[in-house]
Specification:
The complex is a heterodimer of chains A (about 350) and B (about 375). By secondary structure, chain A is mainly α. Chain A contains 16 helices and 2 strands. In chain B, strands 1, 2, 3, 4, 5, 6, 7, 8, 9, 10 and 11 form an 11-stranded mixed sheet that branches. The chains are: A mainly alpha (about 350), B alpha/beta (about 375).
Chain lengths: ~350, ~375
């Protein structure tokens, strides 16, 4: 008995001599425990056991911090600061992700079977990838085009505000954000009136006899602007534009204008100065803007629902339909997971080519 | 159905603002004092266990006066909320509790009939205390004895309406009469359909000469789906909408669309070019219907409340506010008695359709679990989702 106690004490001492290991261990332990509880790996009495173990770990950590003195607390601090974030991620990201993956591999006995059984049912993924392939392709192409458009529109705008805005800078920036004061849904629905067949834009195009050009560019279809792919892409561009302008503005605003002067002094033309100095320095903003626009745009369903037609639905609409209407949670989960994976792959490739490690 | 009720008469908006003003003022006066916690409790979403009756309804679907009158007449306290926005969304919200055998806070919900039928099928509602609802006899005859609840044991209709065709006569340039007008090539890209499957498919089926009450399998309805698919791929259909079709119709984006009578009644006041018809082949009749949720123990209050709503005087007041077709007999006479604008409502053919129109209305029977799934999936693949 005494030998067990002394062994325990010895182990305790060896741990308190390396408090950073205790910090790391407790962080991982608490995270794992949080996922186990939230994803319901353990239930009933064993859940209680996990909770008690988590409590014990927390107490052990506090003990180490107090017993080890200042040095120990110093080396514990980094993990201490990380813990809230890690536990948050475990509870609200990892655990739901786990549930989603389990659901995506389950099968239902009937339409109103609300507790599908986990059966390694990869059929759900086959359905997600074949039946909904058009929606996936459409989502990523629409989101890609919308992202490019926000760059084309947003970059000059951010450039103007940052370098030519002068004392009106803040007002101009405010104007970029002002649309957010209205709800997303209302802003999107408003386009319905602006682009209506009898509305101002279509009448203007018709008076100027430009409809032929718009039709050949496929922006208009059968004399309509509303309920076309162009309207959906336009809606995405409009709604996500501020997410492109703001990060670009931040990175442009930081640029020391004397760098441009220096480039000019060295006989570079204005466009060379832009390409060699301003553009590279603003890449981090462009990079961030690209992510902020592309990711939510790919999963958006509001624009396609209100500005599109039956041939322009995006994957978000399909997931919503599978989940709410068809009550097909396994297929909806598989579709969501596939969407996440594809976005992750695209972001990784994007980071590879536009990576910001050697910038800023 | 989908977020259908958006239009609120000005007078009610004003009275709501007043009430809000009152609350703000009350809150300011009571700030820091003991009344604040009480006020917060009054605003907070408690479980409803502290009141005798909790009714969760569609937005803008009842006047405030009715609740006050009921409370003082019956002595029961009542909580009334309007968080029921969409049948499918609400179902997704209550499903986790009810499927585990737990109860939800509201005692009464008013889902659309097919959702009510689903709740009955799942055993999530209980039989109404009909013995204590003498006004049950005022239920309109055509709504009694539905195929999914032959003895009217589980539900009592709250409001009803018609799905037919609405058109903008400025765009069509002619009167419409038939379901086949929706497939007129002259209106290519100018036709709207509802995302509410039963109303859209039902109308097309009637156009094909089918009786929708007899349809219980997908195969029997496939002709309508084929027709819809063809119209979609040819570009005849502009979009599938919820009740936002009102804007498209008014703006002229839709020449014609499948529409709900109540919406169009409101719309025609602002835009006389918009017209509503029950096609000669027939229109679908829908109703939102009150069900008593499983686990609720407030039988007395539930019975009193339903009995109160089925008193023609109270039903007429409700009709004057919501302007849907009342399921209660005797409302027309009561509206005449109320006089003024309300008496005019009594003559409105959309609120009180004549016998010939009523004769053309049909309603869906119950679809089995697997058949309904086939309908919904086929419809989703047409709407593109």
């Amino acid at each position: 008995m005494t030998s067990v106690v002394s062994a325990g004490r010895k182990w305790g001492e060896s741990l308190s001599s390396r408090p950073e290991n205790v910090g790391l261990g407790v962080m991982l332990g608490l995270g794992l425990g949080a996922v186990a509880l939230a994803a319901q790996w353990v239930k009933g009495p064993s859940a209680l056991l996990v909770a008690v173990a988590m409590l014990a770990m927390a107490i052990g950590l506090i003990y180490t911090a107090f017993a080890g003195g200042l040095e120990a607390r110093k080396s514990l601090a980094p993990y201490g600061l990380l813990k809230p974030g890690i536990i948050w991620l475990c509870l609200f990201f990892l655990a739901p992700l786990w549930s989603m993956v389990v659901m995506s591999l389950s099968s239902k006995a009937g339409r109103f079977d609300f507790f599908p059984d986990f059966t390694w049912n990869f059929e759900n993924y086959r359905i997600a990838l074949t039946k909904f392939r058009p929606q996936f392709i459409r989502s990523f192409s629409y989101a890609g085009i919308a992202t490019l458009l926000t760059v084309v529109i947003g970059y000059p705008l951010a450039y103007f505000i940052a370098f030519r805005g002068g004392k009106y800078r803040n007002i101009l920036l405010g104007l970029v954000v002002v649309p957010f004061f209205t709800s997303y849904l209302i802003r999107t629905l408003a386009w319905n009136n602006i682009l209506a067949d009898e509305g101002p834009v279509v009448s203007l195009i018709n008076t100027l006899h430009l409809s032929g050009i718009f039709e050949s560019l496929d922006i208009m279809q059968n004399g309509k602007l509303m309920n076309t792919p162009a309207a959906v892409i336009g809606g995405l561009t409009y709604n996500f534009l501020p997410f492109m302008v703001l990060p670009i503005y931040v990175s442009l605003e930081k640029i020391d204008v004397r760098l441009v002067d220096a480039a000019m002094d060295l006989y570079s033309s204005a466009s060379q100065a832009f390409r060699k100095v301003v553009l590279p320095l603003s890449l981090p903003g462009l990079f961030a803007g690209g992510l902020l626009v592309f990711i939510p745009a790919a999963g958006d369903f509001v624009n396609a629902q209100f500005l599109g037609n039956p041939q322009t639905t995006m994957i978000g609409n399909s997931i919503q339909d599978q989940f709410l209407r068809q009550l097909n949670y396994p297929v909806a989960s598989a579709m969501s997971f596939v969407l996440m994976i594809i976005i992750t792959i695209i972001v990784l490739i994007y980071t590879k080519f536009m990576g910001t490690e050697d910038l800023a | 159905m989908n977020t259908r009720r958006t239009t609120t008469p000005q007078s009610v908006k004003a009275s709501r603002l007043n009430r809000r003003d009152f609350l703000i003022r009350g809150g300011l006066m009571g700030a820091g004092a003991l009344s604040l916690p009480a006020l917060l409790a009054a605003c907070g979403g408690d479980s409803g266990s502290s009141v005798d009756l909790f009714f969760e309804n569609w937005p803008g679907y009842m006047d405030e006066e009715t609740i006050g009158l009921f409370q003082s007449a019956s002595g029961f306290s009542m909580k009334y909320t309007e968080a029921f926005n969409d049948n499918n969304e609400y179902f997704a919200k209550i499903q986790p509790e009810l499927s585990k055998g737990k109860t939800i806070a509201p005692d009464i919900l008013a889902p659309t009939f097919w959702m009510a039928a689903r709740l009955v099928q799942l055993g999530w509602v209980q039989k109404l205390p009909k013995a204590d609802i003498p006004n049950f006899v005022n239920l309109r005859d055509d709504l009694s004895g539905q195929s999914w609840d032959k003895g009217d044991e589980y539900h009592l209709p709250y409001q009803s309406g018609i799905a037919g065709i609405a058109y903008n006569s400025k765009i069509t340039g002619r009167e419409l009469k038939s379901v086949s007008d929706l497939f007129d090539p002259a209106f290519k890209g100018k036709i709207g359909m509802l995302t509410e499957m039963r109303d859209t498919v039902g109308l097309i089926l009637m156009g094909e000469g089918k009786k929708i009450a007899d349809i219980s399998t997908f195969d029997a309805a496939s002709v309508a789906f084929d027709k819809l698919e063809k119209a979609k791929s040819e570009g005849q259909i502009r979009s599938f909408t919820g009740n936002d079709y009102v804007d498209d119709l008014s703006a002229g984006n839709f020449a014609a669309c499948v529409a709900w009578s109540g919406d169009v009644l409101q719309l025609t006041k602002d835009n006389p070019a918009v017209k509503f018809i029950v096609p000669e082949e027939g229109g679908t009749s829908w109703y939102d219907t009150m069900v008593w949720m499983k686990g609720s123990e407030n039988s007395d209050a539930v019975a009193k409340w339903m009995n109160f709503l089925y008193d023609p005087v109270n039903a007429a007041r409700l009709t004057a506010f919501v302007q849907y077709i009342s399921p209660v007999k005797g409302v027309q006479e009561e509206l005449v008695k109320m006089g003024g604008d309300n008496a005019k409502l009594a003559e409105d053919p959309l609120l009180f359709p004549d016998a010939a129109t009523f004769g053309r209305l049909q309603s869906w029977g119950a679809l089995g679990e697997e058949e309904e799934a086939k309908f919904d999936e086929a419809f989703a693949s047409i709407t593109g989702a």
